[in-house]
Predict the 3D structure of the following.
Amino acid sequence: MDTPLKLRERLRLNDELFAKTGCMFGLETLAEKEKSPGLYEAVWHILLSVCNTAWEVGCKVSASPVAAEGGDALWALHTPTGECICTSYGITAHVGLLASMVRKFIELGYEDMPGFRQGDIFENNDPHYGGIHMPDMDTAMPIFYKDQLVAWATSVTHVADAGAVLPGSINFMNPDTFSDGMPVSVERIGEKDRYYPWYELRIKSRTRTPDWVLGDARGRLAGLITVREKLIETIDKYGLEFFEKASREYIEDSRRYAVARIRTQAVPGRMRKSQFKDLAMKGRDVVMPRQNIDLLSNVPMEMRIDGKANVTVSLAGASASVPFGQNISPTALSSALLMGYSHVVGFDMFNSGPTYALTVETPPPGSWCNPFPVDWFASTGIGWASAIRWLSQLYEVTGRLYHARGFVEEMSAGAASTLCAEWNGINQYGQYSVGLGLEQASNGSPARGISDGEPAAWCLYTANADFGSAEVMELYYPIMYLGRNMEPDSGGYGKFRGGPGHTSVWMVKNSPELRYAAACAGAHSKITANHGMFGAYPTPGDRLAYAVDTNVRELIEQRKPLVHDRGNDPERPTLAQNVVARVMDNDFVVPGNISETLHEYDLVISPTSGSQAMGDPIERDPALVKDDLDKGLTRPWVAENIHGIVARKDARGEWTIDVRETEKKRQGILEARKRRGVPFRDWWQQERGRVAAGENMDEAVKRMWRSSMKLSPGYAAELRAFWSLPANFEF
Amino acid sequence: MAEYDIYDVEDIRKLVDGELPWRTVQQMMKNGKDRDRFDKWVTILQERVSWKEKILLPLTPALFIVQKPRERVVKCRCGQEFGDYRVNWKLSALIHVRDTDEKLSQVYRGYEKPDPAWMQLREYYCPGCGSQLEVEAVPRGCPPDFEFLPDLDTFYREWLGRPLPESCEFADRTLQRIGEWAE
């Protein structure tokens, strides 16, 4: 009998086979699939079910609001060398990270030291070694069958607090890695199906919500053991040889599906889309003096598809890392891209396969998406922030490709933004608590090529959009929901609008004091997203509202109107109309920490963005505008001025469109555009002077251009050439 | 794969025009894709324009790359032409830029309004019909996005299996045009 190859040797062999054949594991034929397609398919669904059972068990055991109520967790099954075979539902953005973590164990020689045994538990949350940010704790367990390592089970949960410098888990404010929280750096953290005591002691002393963090740890472990037990049953039934062969074929099958989908539904060529991410912190509460700064990050996407349907993605032009938590490692970015890719390209069998169907060029060293070569101590407190904005482009880019080929049912516009709500303070049970709201886990979905997006039913970073039950969130946190409503016009303006997001109105309840952070996992505030697909207007930026020391108690006692929504007029928000407060801000730029401590009857109004629209807004079917007017999903001002609709509201509150007047109005808008539009060349002549002079450009904008041009000389040369600026021009 | 070719041009027309029930659309999403969808798509689009040039590739709902006797150009559904498809068509469009508080307020109001020192809203119009073709929300200094430069010859030759009569270098010619302007 041959001595089994060491895992590191198998990794090397896999890489060689892929380089030689272009197929994962050198699988030029899918023998098990061809031999027995029914069995092949059936076992795939059994393995999926194994992972999903783990998700159900793990989330229930965890009991933390983020996992149990929001399902921000994942369990997956991997080959012995780490490639993901299949995954549960949940936060699929982590699949690539979990796969690379197992690979990391092998590359670091862990097979020899400390060795792999049944019941071992390994973990990483350290972004320097493949994690995304400390609160996402990635755990793995080798699975042995008759003394042979046959697979890995992995899991991730997002814990409420990982001990960062400020409370919470959306740590945009971290100035450097020393403030990122409690690291678990590619460690063995337990054996014999139990955590080491020192692992639990570390959580108890280094996180603010140890019960929830330990609950999550136990949830992950329960799910991992579930995967192991169920997998062993599956192998008992179908045989190890079949499992080993079929599991590799599932991955290669998935790679082929992604490649085939590009070839049959896209078009070769070059796609480009600019995107930007704002972070306005000058003059606001920050942790360190160097954070007293306004920043704009350049998050560009270029996708090239060659004649063999190979997809290459570039971030040339990405701007520099930032002294906040909004940096991300290339490993984590690639994992996020795999998740986005699974939404729009390779979604038949979701696993590591599509990773090998695309190439992500190494981002510029020193940029927000590859900070460590230049700044080893850069923070990745919320690595998702700029990455989510970058990923949003994948939806529009592939949407354009599918449009070109005629697959209009597969099109999507860009994604929504991600503003998060974080609380910390004494809860209604008298305990110190840190909590993450889950509203951001349910955006509207992007407009399709043939219809509007769906309201509050979609999320970029998890396939399971779920904002949790308001009543349950009230049990976890000392807040009362005064409202949770669809936000009118939050899905942009277009022929088809994105699904609207929703607005939550919270009143502090049963807490002596509470702090609030409008935290950022990919929000916009000073800018909108660059998603004007086919002539639509992007969704507006995210702005919070809050009121401190209010008269709400009196309003309740006097049975006067409260605040249940943002209102119908952004210039006259309901909060300002109905409530009197010592401090009130209806236009709070996010992200940011509210400076004041909140008390009973104080209010926070948090918007959750809708997704992007598509097409010229004056081509929107008047019947759809009427429907939105009747349902309160668009405002009369928008219907009239943006969509060119002439309508009247009757006494019963129902709207009637004047078709003839609408046609006239729309014709007038077309003519007005032609009058006010200037030939591009004329504008270019004027604009290049303003660009050269830096006219009306915030310092954040100039700073961004400077670093983009420094880090990507080719990008810089193109920018200068476009504006006919001298070769030595700098902003 | 013939079992996937279950939709005819009329089915796709109804899909495009939003005339199919949502359940049917969902089924079309789940089913295997028809291999000749592109031809059906172009057939539908070609019938909807009044001009005769052959559509080589739709770029947006309003813009198409079409074959002229000697070149491939971008053309609007209204007939307006934007020149060589390898030059960003935006250079031949009308542009209106909202880069002040007042201009932005005509689209975004109150707390929805972005900061004009951080971002300008660029609207690209067709000079022929006034359609709003694309909108960009970018900081000053950002060159216009050249969203899609297709490799048409590779597409027709290698993916569709029917080469175009004359090949054309796959290259971005935008900066060349800019260079001509600067002279």
User: Anything to note?
Assistant: Chain A has four domains: 47-255, 413-614, 618-676, 680-722. Chain A has a mean pLDDT of 96.
